[in-house]
Amino acid sequence: MWKKLLAWILVTVILTGYGIQIVEAFDQKENVRMEEVTEKPDQNSLYAKAAVLMDADSGRILYEKNGHQAMANASTTKILTCIIALENCDLDSEVTVSTLAASQPKVHLGMREGQKFYLKDLLYGLMLESYNDCAVAIAEHIAGTTGDFAKLMNDKAEEIGCEDSYFITPNGLDAKNENGFHHTTAADLSLIMRYCIKTSEMAEQFLTITREGQYQFSDIDGKNSYTCCNHNAFLQMMDGALSGKTGFTGNAGYCYVGALKRDDRTFIVALLACGWPNNKTYKWADTKKLMQYGISRFRKISLDEIELDAGEYAPVQVVDGQGTKIGEEVTTELEVAPVKENVELLIEKDQEVHIEYQLSRKLYAPVTEGDFIGEITYLLGDEVLAKRVVTVKNTVKRIDFCWCVKKTAELFPM
């Protein structure tokens, strides 16, 4: 054991000195603590410098530690590369290896310039073994150059809702240019994973690839065969583990983003700078701690199932509105729009949602169907979860001379 440990430290020091990315080769489950977590973890108890626990269904952050701090994120970048490839290319398309792709540092497949592969096979190499040359070959196949592919990555990140991410390389190797350094945040990385497993039209294909334990393929000519093994040890650590991606560079440290589904709840954990060699198991300890906290403390609710106070949105008086007769009080019913966002979400077991009604109690004619008269707001403490717009259901015209003459005539029929 000590010989293996010393050898790993020596290799790591040498490779990181050259800026080479490392994939973990030894048993990643050893020394991982398995304690039960029922209370909110103290931030000092986490190894990661930045961490987020997210509700994958709503996108709400349930726990964070420096969740919006921009940091290098190593090979966790490859989840974005993978989903862009799945959305933009046929899996059976042929990828020709360039000089640049063939020259990528370890960890790599060892492809040679001019070799041809099917895109599907390279995606398994990308996600299971974290091969850097696969990432570049895929990027060039899709966009022509890695620079043009980086634009696709940044555009997709903005579309997903990322607030502070900037991608330069398709494989996550540390890089800088005139616009900044390759980075994301734990919050943004969680959003990207959420998109990959929940929102994208290719989510099922993404899950199929990232959950595969082992995959074998050959180049198109059939001259070379390859075997890929999944390095996401979390898939065997907790029941319901869905997907994930590890990462490491000398600058980023150990990084991880993973997802787990338990009953009707889906959680995402993102960790950045979660230790450096020889602390490769820190990320598993942090991931388990945050996942167990989510499982033990949060329950799912549906805002649609929370009963509203009917008295709060009862028919509203319309002053000077035309009714069926003179002197009659005129009212109009209200229409409550459905919840548009965060219909289902997770809240702590001892929390309750509070509802605020901000509605006009008196209207003045004329009013038209669809007129806005207020909102119903769902609150969790000070956090606004959702709003429902309330509008007029029935048009009511204003009393005028002609209406008065008509109603007066009805009182004294000829």
From TrEMBL:
Record-annotated membrane-spanning stretches: none
Protein name: serine-type D-Ala-D-Ala carboxypeptidase
Domain Peptidase S11 D-alanyl-D-alanine carboxypeptidase A N-terminal span(s) in chain numbering: 41-270
Pathway membership: Cell wall biogenesis; peptidoglycan biosynthesis
Domain Peptidase S11 D-Ala-D-Ala carboxypeptidase A C-terminal positions: 340-398
InterPro entries, alphabetized: Beta-lactam/transpept-like, Peniciliin-bd_prot_C_sf, Peptidase_S11, Peptidase_S11_C, Peptidase_S11_C_sf, Peptidase_S11_N
Family: Belongs to the peptidase S11 family.
Swiss-Prot/TrEMBL catalytic activity: Preferential cleavage: (Ac)2-L-Lys-D-Ala-|-D-Ala. Also transpeptidation of peptidyl-alanyl moieties that are N-acyl substituents of D-alanine
Residues forming the catalytic site: S75, K78, S130
Known function: Removes C-terminal D-alanyl residues from sugar-peptide cell wall precursors.
EC category name: hydrolase
Gene name of the record: dacB_2
Keyword Hydrolase on entry: yes
Keyword Cell wall biogenesis/degradation: yes
Classification via Gene3D superfamilies: D-Ala-D-Ala carboxypeptidase, C-terminal domain (2.60.410.10), DD-peptidase/beta-lactamase superfamily (3.40.710.10)
Binding site for substrate: K245
GO molecular function, one term: serine-type D-Ala-D-Ala carboxypeptidase activity
EC number(s) per entry: 3.4.16.4
Keywords: Carboxypeptidase, Cell shape, Cell wall biogenesis/degradation, Hydrolase, Peptidoglycan synthesis, Protease, Signal
Any one Gene Ontology BP term: cell wall organization
Pfam families named in the record: PBP5_C (PF07943), Peptidase_S11 (PF00768)
